[in-house]
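INFO  loader      accepted 1 record
INFO  loader      residues=138
INFO  predictor   begin
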Amino acid sequence: MKLTTEEIDFITRDIKERGISMNDLADSLLDHLCCAIENDPDENFNRAYSRALALFGNEGLIKIQQDTILLLTLKKEIAMKKTMYLLGYIAAFLCTTGLLFKMQSWTGANILLTLGIVLLNFGFLPMFFYDRYKRATS
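INFO  predictor   done
INFO  writer      dumping tokens
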């Protein structure tokens, strides 16, 4: 089956009416639906379109958008946590090394301590408290 521009426009409008607001996702869904319809042996557009929609499960297209948003949010959250733990490790390392240098009266102790405390106060702690706040509100 070859789709006409009217049928493609119908699918596009229907995707928007079903609540899909992400443009990239809407384009991907349009592509998947068109491919499924064109590969359907039935020549009736309405029946082929119904079968193509059924391929997305009982919850339909809106569930796909919700899952996509969740995955995108989760990906950012994981990157933030990795950065937070790395900053915490580096800050702790700089502070303890700076203290060791200070106790031994070696040069560079003040720089290490200052860098460690700045990184701890302006890098790790804000991210840590933001993460705790997000956990408490969700």
